Request: fold
Amino acid sequence: MQQPGRAAEIKAIGIGKSFGSFRALDNLSLNIGRGEFLTLLGPSGSGKTTFLMILAGFVQPTEGKLFSDGTDITDRPAEQRAAGMVFQGYALFPHMSVEANIAFPLKVRKKSAADIKKRVGEMIERVGLIGHEKKLPSQLSGGQQQRVALARALVFEPGVLLLDEPFSALDKSLRGQMQAEMKRLHQETGTTFVFVTHDQSEALALSSRVAIFNHGKLLQVGAPDEVYDRPDNRFVAEFLGEINMLPLKGVKPADNGSTGLCEDRAVNMHCKAEKVRGDAILAIRPEHMSIAREAAAGENGIAATAIASTYLGAATKLDLTTRQGAKVTVSVPNEVAAAALSKGNSVWLTWPAEKGFLLPDGGQ
Amino acid sequence: MRGVLSDRMGAALLMAPLLLFLILAYAWPFLGVVKWSFTLPTPGLGQYQALLTDDLVQSVFIRTLRIAAIVTVVSVAAAYAITVVWVRGSPAQRLIAEFCILVPFWISVLTRAFGWVALLSNRGLINTWLQSIGFISEPLTLVRNEFGVVVGMTHFLIPFAVFPLASAMRSLDDRVLLAARGLGSSRMRTFWTVFVPMTRSGIIGSALIVFVFSLGFFVTPAILGGGRSVMIAELIYLRIFQSPDWGLGAAISVVLVLFVGALMALLFRYVKPKQLI
Reply:
């Protein structure tokens, strides 16, 4: 988090934080690679913001160590770490112009007036704020304030940029625009980005890796498709999007993955049955299931009855019940949904073996 | 009440006794004072002309402005420090600060003025102590001059300066201070370049309220000034009750009220009334 112009590599080892008897963060170990775009994802109170504040140096961990490029920075105060930070609500200096806000970190570093002028000018151009230099934050729109906050946090070329739910106050269309802009800034600067959000689609869209938090614990870290398609546990599976869970019996390893009984029919999974044996849960995303007249021998399938549909425009969400009463939701083309509903009786739900994954039975 | 009286009617009725009292006890008699200033001893603008030429009146006006300005600077600076502790300190620090701010409120202005006399007079605590440790040989003149007046008034006015400052500091977003530190600014620099400018409205409100109060001070300057450091309010008293010159006393009063009124108008441009409590 020091040498300007160079992305930092951060290593957290066994970080924990207690506020009185409340355990905000528990035994967290995580490596953040140079130039990576890491998202910390979780519901409120999951510990993701506490971890960000520990990275920034605003919160002192109760235990554990933090390294930046191999240097122990656990006890280093925030002003000496100089990670760029964008706060929720932006936290711009209300009494300073756009220009003065962006110049602030450079003035603190005692850069020459000419250097400050040049770098502030470049940054203003880069975030598209030309013509707004002399305005006060209160005279700007939410999106423009966001850009000032980004410019101010990046102008001194920090090794890492920390972002605390920066888009939560923006409306949906502006959010999309700012997300694209942030991705561009990440590519242009090459800096390590650590981004906090509770919005799973934002996390999946932006990051090179996602770290999912719940109740102060880091549950899983991985590339977006990795955590979405192969979650380690039920919380991650459910938090990242809608998911169907079917009870599975007699799970055991098989050639090329594992096998088990789903409502008395044998099904195959490509994933290994390492962590689970016997009873387990088979999880499948709604968009990975399709409706068929019947399932061929050897194909994964389960019989179900369509009970309701929700028209979503591009597709229809169809709710079904299996013979043994499990509820399943699928996302299918509109005409397929209509056909399934009009039949009134049994259809088959099928899915490819690589799209179903195993979760331990019950809870996490 | 609801359904019988509209909210506005209810509010008007609740305020009526106070308004009536202010009109009868304050506005109406003041109109009488305005009338005197134009009619005594002879009708005309003579008293206002005298104000412009009378050396004594002018020197008292200048002294009043000077004392008020010094008291304002000292009070606001001291209040700022104590308010920072009161609003942002640890729970124990807050309690101590609150105690220091509120206790003076419970002691009468007269008691406090005499208290300062006991501390500051030639044979008072401070002089006898300084002499006993051999720091000075002759007592310092600490009362019956402007110094004593400034000390007494500052002590009285600090709590009033605290409230607008506290209100400004409480409404400040903590994340802005964190942002400054995160961007590399030391605590000291953050205080001077971010915290202080962001409490500007509180400083202005606090300074104006202290200044306005100082202009009309009577008891403290009368006791701690000992007749040698006469301020405007005391001069009005002397003109009305000692050297009966009601017309001039009335004219000074009118000028003072207009001046204070203008300052109050300025005050409410920067601070909402509820921030002053």
Q: What stands out?
A: Chain B has a mean pLDDT of 88.
